Amino acid sequence: MAAGVWSYWPVLSDLWDFWRHNADYSVGQLVPFVAVWMIWSYRHELRKLPVRTCWWGLLVLLISQALRLAGLYYMYGSVERYSIVLTIAGVVLLVWGYQVARQLVWVFLFLLLMIPLPGRVHNQVAVPLQSFASTSAVFCLETAGYLVARHGNVLELSDRTSVAVAEACSGLRMLTAFTVVAATLAFMVRRPAWQKAVIVLSSIPVAILANTLRLVATVLLHEWIGGEVANRFFHDFAGLTMMPVAVVILVIELRLLRWIGQPAP
Hints:
11 helices; mainly alpha; 3 strands
C-alpha cells in the first residue's frame, strides 16, 4: 500500500493542487474521506466475508498500470488519475478477494467522482451549461414579467443592469457538488439499485435548477441593490443556500420513489 502511494505521489499531489485551485472540482477533496467513511460503515458486512486471494486482481493491476503508462506517454493526465481508482480496485481484488471487492463496488464508483473531467469533456459540458444557464434565466425573468435582452451570455435587464454569465456561473461547480451529495445519499438509503441510480442521475437537473434560481436572484439583486452585493450573493451566500435546498429535493424524490415502489393493495 505504501509503495502504491509513493508511486502515485506526483499524481496525487497534482490532483490536490487541482482541487484547491479549480472551484468546479473542489468537492473532489472530500470524496476520499467520504469513501473511507463508506468502508467503515461496511465494516460489519466485510468481517463476515471470506478473505481469499483472487488472481484476477493482478490482471486489473496490469491494466491500470498500462493505462497509467499510456497517460504518461501521451501526456494525458486524466488517464493517470483514473488509473488510481482502478489500481485501488485491483489491490482489493487481489488481496481480499472477489466478495470483498464486490461489496465495495459502490465505493470504487464513488471514488471516480474525485477525478476532474478531462479538458475536452469539461469544455463540452461547461459551454452548453453556460448557454443553458443564460437561456433559463431569461425564461424565468420574462415569466416573472421582466423584459430581458440577451446578447450571447450577457443579460440586460435595463439600461443600468447588465450581467455577464461567465463560465463560473455555468453551474458546473453545483453539478459536481450535487452529484457527490446525491451519491452519498444513495449509499445511505436501503433502496433497489435502480432507485439509487435515479437519485444520482437526478442530481443533474437538480443542479441545473438550483443554478438557474441562483442566477435569477443575482440578476434581480443587480437591478435592485447593485453589482457588489449581487456578486457577493452569487459566490458566497447563494451557493451555501442551494445545497440544503438540493438535499430537500432529493429527500422528497426518495419519498416519491418509495411510494412508486410500493406494491398496489
